[in-house]
Amino acid sequence: MAGRSVNQVKNEVHEVAIFREMVRKEQRYQKLITEYAFNPFHQVHAVTGKPMSWHDNLEQEVNPTYLSMIHKVTLEPTKKYTEPQTSAQEIGWITTPLINLDRTDRRFNFPHYKTDITTYMEEAWRQKEQSTNLQ
């Protein structure tokens, strides 16, 4: 029985103490750098302007064919092509309604309207909500 090892139970206090000691050791060798400077021995390269930026390219002439090509690329597919190019474009390709809506036709138009009971219950519900919010 003397060769049997005793399992030591770790509790939360010991774990926090070990963690605190580990953090102190890490902070001892860390150095926080807050001031930055350019290396004088390293050559700095100039960064070119952005190609689609209007304020960088005001002094240059704009090619009209290039502009028309850019405008054509930004159009939605239904204005670029006469028919869908992929099977995913077939869904929603025709966006115009099949029939014109007539709001006066009571067969297809069901507007919301209130009866005496619905207005009463709406007011009762509103008063109930206000009284529960006050408590």
Describe the fold and architecture.
This protein is mainly alpha-helical and 135 residues long. It has a domain at 11-37. The chain has four helices and no strands. It is flat and about 80 Å long. The two termini are 68 Å apart. The model has no long low-confidence stretch (mean pLDDT 82). InterPro entries: CFAP144. Pfam families: FAM183. It is found in: Cell projection, Cilium; Cytoplasm, Cytoskeleton.
Explain the layout of strands and helices.
Layout: H1 12-29, H2 64-73, H3 77-80, H4 116-134
Keywords:
135 residues; mainly alpha; flat; cell projection
Amino- and carboxy-terminal Cα gap = 68 Å
- The overall strand count is 0
Percent in strands? under 5%
Radius of gyration: 37 Å
**Form type:** flat
Q: How many H/I helices?
A: 4
The percent of residues in helical segments reads 25-40%
Stretches where pLDDT falls below 50 for ≥5 residues? none
| Structural class label | mainly alpha
Biggest beta sheet summary: none
What is the H-and-E element order? Answer: HHHH
Average per-residue pLDDT, rounded, comes to 82
Summarize it.
This protein is mainly α and 135 residues long.
